[in-house]
Design a protein that fits this description.
The chain is of the alpha+beta class and about 270 residues long. It has six helices and eleven strands. Helix content is about 45%, strand content about 25%.
Length: about 270
């Protein structure tokens, strides 16, 4: 069957799709992707779709696989092999989820046609179909991420160990997907420390020591302020003896529970 392809449609469509898919993968991995990196990575995805013009299945598939790795390297700003492989696998699964969503929507509505050529999908469908498919994909990925995180981390026993200005602390910790706090300046996720001890050690109620700053935050029931600091080092350990250094800021709030709360995305 001959298919008439429009290069501009192919490029623009795959650019939009790549933006949605990378955003969904970032949601699943609790990663923050800057708009510039998101657009640059999506351009790679759009350009890779043009490989079908070579007429070679082997070339097209190879280009697509390489593009996924490059997209992840750009979007997630990493060249670490383990992280890169994991992000690439997740992005590939997100793409499969999107294709399934598009196919099901097309099957039940009969809106347009879908062509799969050498691993690249060309949609001869309405914009509305693509919009709904993108929304469906993002919703499915977000729901899957919630279920996965709650199942994986719900009953875990964790500890957070950190050093602030040469003072070391250790806290029992709770993994909570509801902790979406990010440092407004660095963009890093914030590990919340509920600790009267730290407040007392640094006299936070009376002064604002060097290296600390105040940031507002909101919970389900209230709004307040926390002291933000950059730890010299911070690690999260689980009950199995695994220890992982993480890149995060800490947010200190008043409280006697002496507990840490972190987003489980820090462990991915």
């Amino acid at each position: 069957m001959l298919v008439k392809l429009y290069i501009d449609v192919l490029f623009v469509t795959n650019l939009a799709i790549s933006i949605v898919l990378i955003s969904a993968a970032a949601e699943f991995t609790h990663s923050v992707v800057s708009p510039k990196r998101l657009f640059a990575a999506s351009l790679i995805g759009a350009l890779s779709s043009l490989s079908i013009m070579t007429g070679s299945k082997a070339v097209s598939v190879s280009v697509k696989l390489a593009a996924i790795v490059i997209m992840c390297a750009i979007a997630f700003n990493t060249l670490k092999p383990r992280v890169l492989v994991k992000r690439s696998v997740i992005l590939s699964l997100v793409q499969l989820t999107f294709l399934a969503a598009v196919y099901l929507f097309w099957y039940f509505t009969g809106s347009g046609r879908i062509y799969i050529l050498y691993g690249t999908v060309y949609f001869d469908v309405s914009v509305l179909t693509l919009v709904f498919a993108g929304i469906a994909c993002y919703t499915i990925i977000s729901a899957a991420e919630k279920l996965y995180s709650e199942y994986t981390y719900r009953n875990g026993a964790y500890k957070v160990q950190l050093t602030i200005k040469d003072r070391s602390y250790s806290f029992e910790a709770l993994a909570d997907t509801g902790n979406m706090v990010r440092d407004h300046i660095t963009g890093k996720p914030v590990v919340v420390l509920i600790s009267d001890k730290i407040c007392s050690d640094f006299d936070l109620f009376e002064t604002l020591p060097e290296g600390f700053r105040i940031m507002p935050y909101t919970t389900v029931s209230s709004s307040s302020l926390m002291w933000i600091a950059k730890p010299q080092d911070i690690k999260i350990s689980d009950g199995k003896g695994n220890v992982k250094p993480v890149s995060a800021a800490v947010g200190i709030v008043e409280g006697s529970s002496e507990q840490a709360i972190f987003n489980p995305g820090l462990l991915t």
